[in-house]
Amino acid sequence: MNDRIQRLVRQIKQMEEELLIEIQKKEEEFFYEIRARKIRFEKKIKAQHKILVKKLPRYLYEASFLNMLTVPVIWSCIVPVALLDLFATAFQFICFPAYGMPKVKRKDYIIIDRHYLSYLNTIEKINCVYCGYVNGVIAMTMEIGARTEQYWCPIKHARRLRTMHSRYKNFIDYGDGVRYKEKLDEVRRDFNDLR
Question: Among 20-24, 63-67, 126-130, which range has the highest average pLDDT?
Answer without folding.
Answer: 126-130
